């Protein structure tokens, strides 16, 4: 009977050693996943730019003899998070700012194709400022006019 007890103690001890070794091996193998992966080299995430088109709108433009109308469609480019919901919330402020900007332009100024780039830059600066002043925490990379028709 004593040999049976000593054999069972040896078997139990061997099982404990094997179980302990297997457990330590598993924890060592899984440690990057368990700890959060500080041992793995991570590549920096590059956020791709997203484009957010706005609804088209019409603005009255002063002319020499009679008023003209500007149909404007544009898209905002940004890498920030929550841009879509922020733009929806800021839509009235964005459109109001653009209407003020364009209503102070003369027809001849807007009808000049050479002014297109400078108008986009002016709109970008204006909208970046207006969004920041109204506590909309997004960063605009660019303002793109996708359609601009003047009559």
Distance between the termini: 108 Å
Poorly predicted runs are none
Which architecture of the largest domain would the CATH scheme give at its second level?
2-Layer Sandwich
Oligomeric composition of the shown chains = single chain
- Our estimate of the beta-strand percent is 15-25%
Number of structural domains: 2
Protein structure class: alpha+beta
CATH superfamily of the largest domain: Band 7 domain
Mean pLDDT over the residues = 84
Task: Please summarize the sheet with the most strands.
Answer: 4 strands, antiparallel
* Individual helix count: 4
Which sequence of SSEs, written as H and E, runs from N to C?
HEEEHHHE
**Looking at CATH, which topology of the largest domain would you report?**
Tetrahydropterin Synthase, Chain A
Rg is: 32 Å
Pfam families: FliL
Subcellular location: Cell inner membrane; Cell membrane
Keywords: Cell inner membrane, Cell membrane, Cell projection, Chemotaxis, Cilium, Flagellar rotation, Flagellum, Membrane, Transmembrane, Transmembrane helix
Transmembrane segments: 12-29
